[in-house]
Amino acid sequence: MKRLIVITLLTVVAATTFAQTLKRERLDSLLNLLQEKDKFMGSIAVAQNGNILYTRAIGYSDVATAHKADPKTKYHIGSITKMFTATLIMKAVEAKKLSLDQTLDKYYPQVENAKKITIRQMLTHRSGIHNVTNDSVYLSYYTQPKSEKELMGIIASGKSDFEPDTKAGYSNSNYIILTYILEKIYQKPYADILKEQILTPGALASTHYGGKINAQQNEAYSYLYKTTWAQDAETDPSIPLGAGAMVSTPSDLTSFITQLFAGKFVSPSTLDTMKTLRDNFGIGMGRFPYANSFAYGHTGGIDGFQSVLVYFPEEKLSVAITANGLVYPYNNLLKCALSGFFNQPFEMPVFNAVAITSESLDQFVGSYATTQIPIKIKITKADNKLYGQATGQQAFPLEASSPTTFQYEPAGVVLEFNIEKKELLLKQGGQTFQFTKE
Fold first, then answer.
1. With the C-alpha atoms ordered 367, 368, 371, 372, is the resulting torsion angle positive or negative?
2. Are residues 347 and 363 in the same domain?
3. Residues in domain Beta-lactamase-related (predicted)?
4. 430 lies in which domain range?
5. Are residues 186 and 281 in the same domain?
6. Number of domains in the chain
7. CB of 282 closer than 8 Å to CB of 274
8. 5-38 burial, b if ≥16 CB within 10 A, otherwise e?
9. Residue pair 236/303 in contact by the 8 Å Cβ criterion
């Protein structure tokens, strides 16, 4: 559910051999550094054959009360929720309560192309249904509860982005609709279905469908880093539903994905169907190559939370990371964990921000546009610090790495300014976009 400029996929360092011993000291060294430099708040768990090999949390679950996080702290996991929802849909298919070829018009004929859109296409993001979280108006209502009628009205009004099954396009709307379909099939709330069919059988006691964050139950608030950690707003769970409303711990997540691949929740043939990729999307999961091996999993993001869950079937290795505040990308923390298993080197980060005077920052302030992608970037200054904001998205703090280069590490965003040409280069995910100052 996370709103970022460009969606990036997990990339990892090449590996050649599998090591049976986890380099705990390497992970400890990185987490110690991140804690010392205040660059990350969150938790990690590494498991093999269902056994936890390493788990640790750093930072605070509640900054205001200085309550430190621990490995049992629960975090909102965003779109990792889709793995659970996809599993529930496939269980319904196995129980013959639903068919992957069933078209959407049986449930929601008001959605454009409903007679053509199938359950399978929604599961694999091939429906063409517009993603509601991409709209700028989304930021005006995401913290307020929405009924099924209201949210389906918003989705239906968004029309289609493309003809069903002609290509893939990630859309949270698919899994919001699938949540409602599950509730219609079982005639009970999604939270109850989830608990009865996955959480209780899987002994996932620290996982549940989200609600208002409850710090007394060791649930973490999420934060954005400005000059200090600032608590982010909470998305109302009635909006993301089975697309991104769940809460969990890294240890529970590693247990879930291990059990999923061990046949606990669905049959091996059903799991094979879920793993089958088309345009990089499977059913509730993607596949991430790692030299001679590969992992299946999903990333997640909602409000200030970011997370990732991966599983290597060959090695029976699972890693989960949940963060409630980060400047240092969780993907790099994941690389550090994996490097210890696959005998690869890992370079520790060096945090040396460049100091720039407030007056010098003024020359970068303004609005920048491009013909390459349908967004503008607005650069503002507050408290002697630059902020960037893309169309329809929240503002993000920029840290100087040179007098004319700034970055936002959590999203891998780099902005390079050319004052003379009145230009701005946006670099993210291996792509470069040229903006001109308006």
1. negative
2. no
3. 43-327
4. 358-437
5. yes
6. 2
7. yes
8. bbebebebeebeeeeeebbeebbeebbebbeeeb
9. no
- Write out pLDDT tens, residues 58-85: 999 999 999 999 999 999 999 999 999 9
- Residue 40 identity: F
Q: What is the CATH number of the domain that holds 374?
A: 2.40.128.50
Give Cα 350 distance to the centre of its chain: 25
- Amino acid letter, 372: Q
The C-alpha angle 103, 106, 107, rounded to 5 degrees, equals 105
Please, what sign has the CA dihedral across residues 255, 233, 302, 200? positive
The 10s digit of each residue's pLDDT in 392-438 is 788 888 988 889 999 887 788 999 999 999 999 999 878 999 999 99
Whether 74 and 7 share a structural domain: yes
Q: Rounded CA gap, 350 and 249, in Å? A: 29
Enter the pTM of the model. 0.85
Which amino acid does the sequence have at 57?
A
CB atoms within 10 A of CB 272: 10
Rounded to 10 deg, the angle between the 81-94 and 250-261 helix axes is: 30
